[in-house]
Amino acid sequence: MDISEIFCKGAPITVTLGQTFTISLKSTPSTGFTWKTEYDSTMIELVKPPKFISNSTAIGGGGEEKFEFKPKRIGEIQIKMKYQREWETTPREIKLYTVLVTQ
Description:
By secondary structure, this protein is an all-beta fold.
């Protein structure tokens, strides 16, 4: 299941226990900005390292960063995504996702 940015506007993501899902976010890493994740690792895991997929043929062009998650337990999980440069303390953008994990 691929999750778009609309789910960060309050609509919860509903998945079953063990079902993987992907959050895809627009990104331009050549500017120094990348997405960082914050979540309860006892409830959910990042299945593999984030993957950047370019949607441009231009050098340094933008694309999407993809994060594949898998829930470990039933319940409600919050995932915070922060778009920021590694050396800066204030994110340029924050997206919050609510995930409801069912049996």
